[in-house]
Amino acid sequence: MKKDKARVQTDKKLASMGKQIGNIYSGDSELKSVQSKYYKYMKMVQERTESAYKAFIEESDREVRLELKKAYMDAVRALTIESKEYNALIEKVTRTLADVNQRALDVVNDGISEVYAINYNQVADVCKEAGIEVVE
């Protein structure tokens, strides 16, 4: 099926917007930095709690297993939600993502009216050709 003029123009505009948004996320050095710090921190959590996790997983006695599960969960909790370092990192991740997301949203907001206009004009032309009055 041959694409109409509006689809071709819309596809071009949307592709351009998609590329701009991709560049915002992939090119933001602050986002890369904070992601790297987050992944390193979570790797540290995994390494520090690995033995507790293995002990819990490998235990066959139900009662002991429940105690080991609690010990593992306590260790993870202490290194994450109860940790000032972790909470500061999460705050930084949140602020950075909010900033990057806002820039991506600005691209959408700046470009979407053009996409709507292209499609509206195409529909208006088709309606006019069919003898249907278009009220603007």
Give a quick summary of the entry.
The protein is mostly helical. Helices cover 86% and strands 0% of the residues. Helix 1 (5-27) packs antiparallel against helix 4, helix 2 (29-58) packs antiparallel against helix 3 and helix 2 (29-58) packs across helix 4 (84-129).
Number of discrete domains: 1
| Number of separate helices | 4
> End-to-end span in angstroms?
30 Å
> Pairing-aware structural class of the strands and helices?
mainly alpha
Mean pLDDT: 94
Count of extended strands: 0
Task: Name the descriptors.
elongated; 86% helix; 136 residues
Outline the structure in words.
This protein is mainly alpha-helical and 136 residues long. The chain has one domain. Helices cover 86% and strands 0% of the residues. It contains 4 helices and no strands. The two termini are 30 Å apart.
Itemize the secondary structure elements and their pairings:
Blueprint: H1 5-27, H2 29-58, H3 62-79, H4 84-129
Helix pairs in contact: 1-4, 2-3, 2-4
